Amino acid sequence: MIQRVQSVFLSIVVVCMVCTFFFPVLKKTNAQGATVELSYTKMTFTAKDKTQKTTPTFYMAILAALAAVTSVFSISSFKKRLLQMKLGLLNSLLMAGILAFTMFFISQGEKFIGMNIGYKSFGIGFFLPVIALVCNILANRYIRKDERLVRESDRMR
């Protein structure tokens, strides 16, 4: 049911996770012209306008797709709040995995480029999983609130 607040938050999670495929996580160039670019499918290290190394990062894309599918399934199972809470936990773990992989590949990029990657180098693809994680936590809070309300109304009968 789209009119519920948690459905709106879960829809935001879906949109954020789908958008991660289209936006880069970071792009940084050092003084010598070496560039490291990280997206959800690959990390590319370029020096002197020639690609030196490409590392596949499709793990992050798989986790983002699983998080989006889990959110869609959670929206569609609105009558089963306990299942929704479990899916919300799974979704939080998937997004934490995305963030862990992101931090790992950022540290690898720092090794390639030989300098610290500052926060100004991050693209919108870095912040989308964070936004999705916050929205997922808020959705779980409202799902628990609904479950408590239903249990309290059952006690009154």
Q: Give, in spatial order, the strands making up the sheet with the most strands.
A: 1-2-3-4
Q: Could you tell me the radius of gyration in angstroms?
A: 19 Å
Main beta-sheet strand count, sense and barrel state: 4 strands, antiparallel
Spans where pLDDT lies below 50 across 5 or more residues: none
**Separation, N- and C-terminal Cα atoms:** 25 Å
Tell me, what is the CATH class? Mainly Alpha
**CATH topology annotation:** Butyryl-CoA Dehydrogenase, subunit A, domain 3
Question: What does this molecule look like?
Answer:
With 157 residues, the chain is α+β, with helices and mostly antiparallel strands. The protein has a single domain (5-148), classed as Up-down Bundle (Butyryl-CoA Dehydrogenase, subunit A, domain 3), CATH 1.20.140. It is built from 4 helices and 4 strands, in the order H-E-E-E-E-H-H-H. It has helices at residues 5-19, 58-76, 81-113, 124-156; strands spanning 26-29, 35-38, 42-47, 50-56. The protein has a 4-stranded antiparallel sheet. Strand 1 and strand 2 form a beta hairpin. Helix 2 (58-76) runs antiparallel to helix 3. The radius of gyration is 19 Å and the shape is elongated.
How does the SSE layout of this entry go?
Elements lengths: L4 H15 L6 E4 L5 E4 L3 E6 L2 E7 L1 H19 L4 H33 L10 H33 L1
Antiparallel strand pairs: 1-2, 2-3, 3-4
Helix pairs in contact: 1-2, 1-4, 2-3, 3-4
Keywords: Membrane, Transmembrane, Transmembrane helix
